[in-house]
C-alpha cells in the first residue's frame, strides 16, 4: 500500500471540484497529538477530490504541502484583515458558565475571552522583518498552553476576517478549537459548515463534562450543517451526550499512513505486551496495570511496556509497585515516533484499554507492524479492525485471557495478523476523503454543478 | 409419478461456555448448561412443538398420504431427554403414524468421517441404537453431517448396509442434469443418492420471508405449481432443510405454518404427485445416472463444500487437536471422557470459528453464541487444554479417570 506521488493523482482540470475552506488547529510542524496527523493526512487525500484552502494558527513558511493552499495566521499580513467586519458569534458561547475544566489534558487555563480586536492585535501580532518587507505575524507558540480560550477566540476572529477574502464553497472545521472560527465564517458568508469530530470533551473528561469546552462543542455542533465523527462510536456520543439528531451525523473513519514495518531483535527473553498512548483517564492506563497483574499471576514470562506520558505517570508507577509487578512493568515516558516504532518492531501483543476512544490510530499502527491487537470495545477502531480481540475496557479478566491465549497460540496469532492485514485494505485516507466529499454531496451542501 | 421427499434435520449442539484461560486446570465442566437449555426451550416452543403438532395433524388429515423423513442428532435427542421429554414424545407420536422415517447420522453431528473412519462408524452405530430405542425403526438411509458427502462416504455407508444416502445437488458435479432423479454414487453397487433440489428447498428455507424477493409472499399453491413442473421430467423432488425453518428461522408471523398447512393438499391436487419417505422412494425408483463426486460437498454456504467448518487455520487446528486425542480417550475406557470427547466433535463448534466475513459470515454469526470467531476458537482451545490434561491424568491412573468430569456445576 503505497501512496502515489501527489502530482500523479491530481486531476488536470480542477475547476469542477468543490472548494473547501479547512480550519485546522494543529498542523505540521506544530503537532501535539493525533489530531494534527489526522488533519494533515486527510487534507492531502482530500486535495485529490477538492480544492483545499487551509487556515491554521501557525505554520512554518518553509513547510510546504503540495497542492494545499496553506495559510497560517502567523504568516499573513495583518493588513489583509483590515476593513473586514466581523460578527460576534462567539459571544453566544461566551455567555455560558465558565467552569474550570481541570480534567481536560489539553486545557488548564481559566482566562476570559476578550473583545477588542485592537487588544488582540497588540498581544498576538508582532512585526518582523522579512528581507525588505515588514510583516506582522500571529504569535502563538504553544497551542494548548497559557490561555487557550483566548487563543481559540482570537483564531476565530482573525480566521473569519481572512475568510472574507477567500473563495470557497464549504467550511470544514475540526474539533472545538476551530468551531468558533467555523461559526463566525458561516454567519458571515452563509456557507455551510461541516465539523469533523476527532475527540470530544466527553471522551477526555468523562460523561459529566459540562465546562466551557463542552458548551462550545455543543453549540458548534448545533450550528453545523453536518458532523463527521471519526467513528460510529463517536457518533453515538454526539447523539447521546450532546443531543444532536442522527440525521446530521455522518461518520467518516480515519485512514492510516502506510509504513514499512520491520522486526527487531528482542530486548529481553520474555514476551512483550505493549501500550502506546497518553497516560490519561481516557486511555484507561490503570486497566493496563490490572491486566498485567492478572497475566503475570499465570505466566511470569511476560513484560508489560507503557510508552507515553501524562498525569497518570506517577500513580501508575506506584500502582505497579504496590501490586509487586514492577520487575515486569516498564514505563518509558514520552517516546518519539522512531522509538515507538522500535517498540512496535519487538512487541508480541498490543493492548488498547481505552475508556473512550473516538478512533485509536495507535492500534492500527500496531496492526501495520503485524502485532495482534487486544482493544476495548469503547473505541472507533473496533468498528474497522475485524482482525482483533475486543473487550469492554473494565473487563480485565477477559483481556488477560486473550493475551495469555495469544502468547501461547501461534495459530491464533497468525490468523488475527492475517485478518487484520486484510482490514488495512479498507483503512486509508483515500477512502476517508472520498467519503467526506460524498458526504458534502449527499447532504446537498455544495452549490449546483459542483 | 413423481414423489415429494421431505427430509428435515433436527439438531442442537452442546454449546461450550465462555471458558477462560484462567479456568484451565480448575474447571472441568465445559458446557453452557444455561444457554443450551434456554435455546432448546426457545426452539422447542417456536418450532418443535408447533411443527410436530402440525405434522401430526397433516398426516391424519391426509390419511397417510403425507409422509416425511427426519434426522435427529444424538446430541439433540439427549437434550430432549434431559430438558424436553415432551418434544421427544411428540416425535415418538409421529413415528407411530407409520408415515415418518428416521434417518441415520453421526451421533454427535460430527466431522468424524474426515478424520477417523473408526470413530465415524462408532458414532453411526450409537445413533442407530438410539433411534431404535425411541422410534422402533432401524434406519436404512444415511445422511452425513450437513450433507457432507463424496464418493468415498457413499461407498463406506453402502458397506455398512444402507440403501440410500442424502446429499446436496451441487451444480459443479451435476452439470446440466436434474437433481430430480436418483443417482448411483461413483464406485458403488447398490446404494442410491438423493440429491437436494436446492432451488425449491431454499425457496422455503431461506427466501420465504424475504420481502425483496419477487415471489414474496409465497403461497402454497404457487410453490406447488413449481413442484408440479417436474412432472414428466423427474421422479423425486427432494426438499431437504433444517427443521428449525418452521417457526425459528422463519417466524410464525411470516405465515410459514399456514404455508405448511396448505402445502400437502396443493401438492396432492396434481394426481401424479405423492409424498414418500426416503426409503419408499429408494425402493420405488431406479437410478438414472452416475453422480461422481470426488471431493467433499455439503449443503452449507455458497461454496457447498467444507469451508463452513474447515477453511481457516483455527478450525483446522482445533479439529486436528480433538481427533488427535482419539487413541488416548479410547484407551481410558472412561465413558464420561468418551462422551465429552464426542460432544466436542460436533460440527457447530467449528462453524462458529468460521471467518468468511464478507460473504456467509452473517449466517455464521446468526447461529454463533459467541462475539466473534476468535472467541469461539479461544474458548474451545481453552477447554481442549483442560480436557487434554484430564485425559492424560486418567491414563496415568490405572483405574481410569481420577475425577468425574461431567459432574454438573453446583447450583448457587
- Integer-rounded radius of gyration of chain B: 21 Å
Number of strands of chain A: 14
Chain pair with largest interface? A-B, 19 and 17 residues
Radius of gyration of chain A over all CA atoms, rounded: 23 Å
Structural class of chain B: alpha/beta
Q: Characterize the largest beta sheet of chain B: strand count, sense, and whether it forms a barrel.
A: 5 strands, parallel
* Overall strand count of chain B: 12
Give a quick account of the main beta sheet of chain A: strands, pairing sense, barrel closure.
Answer: 6 strands, parallel
CATH class of the largest domain in chain A: Alpha Beta
Estimated share of beta-strand residues of chain B: 5-15%
The quaternary organization reads as heterodimer
Looking at the structure, what is the overall shape of chain A? Answer: elongated
Could you report the average pLDDT of chain A, rounded to the nearest whole number? Answer: 81
State which percent range the strand residues of chain A make up: 15-25%
Element string of chain A (H = helix, E = strand): HEHEEHHEEHEHEHHEHEHEHEHEHEEHHH
**What is the CATH topology of the largest domain in chain A?**
Rossmann fold
Distance between the termini of chain B: 61 Å
CATH architecture of the largest domain in chain B: Alpha-Beta Barrel
Count of runs of 4 or more consecutive helical residues of chain B? 17
- What's the helix count of chain A? 16
CATH topology title of the largest domain in chain B? 7-stranded beta/alpha barrel
Amino acid at each position: 500500500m503505497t501512496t502515489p506521488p501527489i502530482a500523479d493523482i491530481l486531476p488536470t482540470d480542477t475547476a469542477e471540484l468543490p472548494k473547501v475552506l479547512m480550519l485546522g488547529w494543529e498542523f505540521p510542524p506544530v503537532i501535539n497529538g493525533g489530531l494534527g496527523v489526522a488533519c494533515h493526512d486527510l487534507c492531502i487525500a482530500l486535495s485529490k477530490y477538492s480544492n483545499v484552502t487551509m487556515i491554521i494558527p501557525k505554520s512554518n513558511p518553509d513547510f510546504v504541502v503540495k497542492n494545499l493552499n496553506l495559510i497560517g495566521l502567523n504568516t499573513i499580513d495583518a493588513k489583509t484583515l483590515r476593513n473586514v467586519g466581523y460578527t460576534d458569534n462567539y459571544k453566544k458561547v461566551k455567555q455560558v458558565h465558565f467552569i474550570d475544566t481541570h480534567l481536560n489534558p489539553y486545557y488548564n487555563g481559566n482566562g476570559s475571552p476578550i473583545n477588542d480586536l485592537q487588544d488582540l492585535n497588540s498581544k498576538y501580532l508582532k512585526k518582523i522583518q522579512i528581507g525588505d518587507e515588514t510583516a506582522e505575524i500571529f504569535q502563538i507558540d504553544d497551542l494548548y498552553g497559557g490561555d487557550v480560550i483566548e487563543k481559540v477566540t482570537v483564531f476565530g476572529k482573525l480566521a473569519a476576517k481572512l475568510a472574507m477574502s477567500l473563495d470557497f464553497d464549504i467550511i470544514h472545521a475540526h474539533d472545538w478549537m476551530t468551531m468558533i472560527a467555523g461559526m463566525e465564517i458561516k454567519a458571515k458568508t452563509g456557507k455551510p459548515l461541516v465539523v469533523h469530530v476527532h475527540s470530544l470533551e466527553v471522551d477526555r473528561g468523562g460523561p459529566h463534562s459540562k465546562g466551557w469546552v463542552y458548551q462550545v462543542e455543543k453549540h458548534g455542533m448545533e450550528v453545523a450543517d453536518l458532523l463527521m465523527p471519526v467513528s460510529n462510536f463517536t457518533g453515538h456520543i454526539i447523539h447521546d451526550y450532546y443531543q444532536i439528531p442522527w440525521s446530521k451525523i455522518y461518520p467518516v473513519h480515519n485512514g492510516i499512513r502506510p509504513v514499512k514495518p520491520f522486526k527487531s531483535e528482542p530486548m529481553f527473553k520474555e514476551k512483550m505486551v505493549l501500550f502506546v498512548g497518553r497516560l490519561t483517564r481516557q486511555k484507561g492506563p490503570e486497566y493496563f496495570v490490572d491486566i498485567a497483574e492478572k497475566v503475570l499471576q499465570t505466566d511470569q514470562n511476560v513484560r508489560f511496556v507503557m510508552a507515553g506520558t501524562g498525569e497518570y505517570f506517577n500513580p501508575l508507577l506506584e500502582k505497579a509497585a504496590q501490586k509487586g509487578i514492577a520487575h515486569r512493568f516498564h514505563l518509558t515516558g514520552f517516546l518519539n515516533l522512531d522509538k515507538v516504532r522500535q517498540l512496535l518492531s519487538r512487541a508480541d501483543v498490543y493492548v488498547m484499554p481505552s475508556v473512550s476512544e473516538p478512533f485509536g490510530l495507535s492500534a492500527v499502527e500496531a496492526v501495520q507492524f503485524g502485532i495482534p491487537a487486544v482493544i476495548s470495545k469503547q473505541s472507533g477502531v473496533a468498528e474497522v479492525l475485524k482482525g482483533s480481540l475486543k473487550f469492554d475496557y473494565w473487563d480485565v479478566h477477559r483481556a488477560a485471557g486473550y493475551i495469555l491465549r495469544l502468547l501461547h497460540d501461534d495459530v491464533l496469532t497468525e490468523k488475527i495478523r492475517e485478518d487484520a492485514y486484510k482490514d488495512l485494505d479498507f483503512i486509508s485516507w483515500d477512502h476517508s476523503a472520498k467519503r467526506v466529499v460524498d458526504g458534502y454531496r449527499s447532504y446537498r451542501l455544495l452549490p449546483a454543478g459542483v | 409419478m413423481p414423489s415429494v421427499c421431505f427430509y428435515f434435520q433436527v439438531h442442537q449442539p452442546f454449546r461450550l461456555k465462555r471458558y477462560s484461560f484462567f479456568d484451565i486446570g480448575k474447571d472441568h465442566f465445559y458446557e453452557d448448561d444455561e444457554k443450551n437449555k434456554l435455546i432448546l426451550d426457545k426452539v422447542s416452543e417456536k418450532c418443535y412443538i408447533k411443527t410436530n403438532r402440525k405434522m401430526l395433524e397433516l398426516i391424519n388429515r391426509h390419511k397417510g398420504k403425507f409422509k416425511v423423513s427426519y434426522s435427529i442428532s444424538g446430541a439433540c435427542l439427549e437434550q430432549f431427554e434431559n430438558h424436553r421429554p415432551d418434544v421427544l414424545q411428540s416425535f415418538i407420536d409421529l413415528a407411530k403414524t407409520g408415515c415418518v422415517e428416521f434417518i441415520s447420522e453421526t451421533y454427535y453431528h460430527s466431522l468424524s468421517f474426515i478424520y477417523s473412519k473408526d470413530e465415524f462408524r462408532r458414532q453411526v452405530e450409537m445413533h442407530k441404537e438410539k433411534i431404535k430405542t425411541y422410534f422402533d425403526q432401524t434406519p436404512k438411509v444415511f445422511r452425513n453431517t450437513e450433507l457432507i458427502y463424496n464418493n468415498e462416504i457413499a461407498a463406506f455407508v453402502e458397506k455398512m448396509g444402507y440403501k440410500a444416502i442424502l446429499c446436496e445437488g451441487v451444480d459443479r458435479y451435476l452439470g446440466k442434469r436434474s437433481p430430480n432423479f436418483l443417482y448411483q454414487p461413483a464406485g458403488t453397487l447398490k446404494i442410491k443418492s438423493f440429491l437436494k433440489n436446492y432451488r425449491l428447498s431454499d425457496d422455503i428455507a431461506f427466501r420465504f420471508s424475504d420481502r425483496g424477493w419477487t415471489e414474496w409472499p409465497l403461497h402454497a399453491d404457487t410453490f406447488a405449481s413449481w413442484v408440479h413442473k417436474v412432472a414428466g421430467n423427474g421422479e423425486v423432488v427432494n426438499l431437504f432443510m433444517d427443521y428449525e425453518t418452521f417457526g425459528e428461522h422463519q417466524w410464525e408471523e411470516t405465515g410459514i405454518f399456514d404455508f405448511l398447512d396448505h402445502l400437502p393438499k396443493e401438492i396432492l391436487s396434481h394426481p401424479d404427485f405423492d409424498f414418500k419417505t426416503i426409503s419408499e422412494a429408494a425402493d420405488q425408483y431406479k437410478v438414472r445416472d452416475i453422480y461422481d463426486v470426488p471431493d467433499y460437498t455439503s449443503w452449507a454456504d455458497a461454496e457447498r463444500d467444507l469451508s463452513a467448518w474447515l477453511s481457516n487455520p483455527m478450525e483446522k487446528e482445533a479439529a486436528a487437536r480433538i481427533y488427535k486425542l482419539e487413541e488416548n480417550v479410547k484407551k481410558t475406557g472412561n465413558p464420561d471422557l468418551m462422551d465429552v470427547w464426542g460432544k466436542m466433535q460436533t460440527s457447530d463448534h467449528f462453524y462458529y470459528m468460521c471467518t468468511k466475513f464478507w460473504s456467509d459470515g452473517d449466517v455464521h454469526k446468526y447461529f454463533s453464541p459467541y462475539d466473534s470467531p476468535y472467541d469461539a476458537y479461544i474458548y474451545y482451545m481453552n477447554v481442549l487444554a483442560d480436557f487434554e490434561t484430564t485425559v492424560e491424568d486418567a491414563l496415568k491412573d490405572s483405574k481410569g479417570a481420577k475425577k468425574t468430569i461431567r459432574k454438573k456445576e453446583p447450583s448457587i
